[in-house]
Amino acid sequence: AGSVAAGSPQELGGVVREEVRPRIITPNGDLRNDAVVFKFDTAITGIPIEASILDIHGARVAGIEAGTTGTDPDSYLIWDGRDDSGRTMPSGVYIYSIKIGKSAATGTVVVAR
After folding, report:
1. What is the pLDDT along the chain (113 residues), one digit of tens a residue?
2. How many CB atoms lie under 10 A from the CB of residue 58?
3. Using an 8 Å Cβ cutoff, are 97 and 104 in contact?
4. If we measure between CA atoms, which residue out of 7, 5, 1, 28 comes closest to residue 91?
5. Which of these, 97, 98, 80, lies nearest to 33 by C-alpha position?
6. How does 67-100 read in b/e, with b if 16+ C-beta sit within 10 Å?
7. If DSSP states are collapsed to H, E and C, what string results for the chain?
8. Sign of the dihedral through C-alpha 32, 37, 40, 46
9. Buried b (16+ CB within 10 A) or exposed e, 11-34
């Protein structure tokens, strides 16, 4: 599956992906657009998930962390603009790759400074 615009649901391994936002992040610690959130309308716990951020050449730079909103039944994945070593990534276009069960989705996000 290709990238999907925010607000355009996509079936992904038995869950519906509701939104990916913001598409442009500025991971500078000001708590505004510091991370991209991949939100699902159902819990994704217990479903095999492989989620990564790749550079524009396809090299993996980071995993995407799972999270839940506590009282909110939705589940989500978050990328904070950092690589697996904790370094903030330079400005540029990055590719997300999410595999849930046997389904997959990809798209792009931008890190801006």
Report:
1. 444 444 456 777 666 676 888 999 999 999 999 999 888 766 666 777 889 999 999 999 999 987 655 545 457 889 999 999 999 999 999 999 988 877 788 999 999 98
2. 8
3. yes
4. 28
5. 80
6. eeeeeeeebbbebbbbeeeeeebeeeebbbbbbb
7. CCCCCCCCCEEECCEEEEEEECCEECCCCCCCCCCEEEEECCCCCCCCEEEEEECCCCCEEEECEEEEECCEEEEEEEECCECCCCCECCCEEEEEEEEECCEEEEEEEEECC
8. negative
9. ebbebebbbbebeebbbeeeeebb
> Which residue shows structure tokens 């400005």?
91
Structure tokens that stand for 5 in this block: 């615009």
Q: Show the tokens assigned to 10.
A: 């996509």
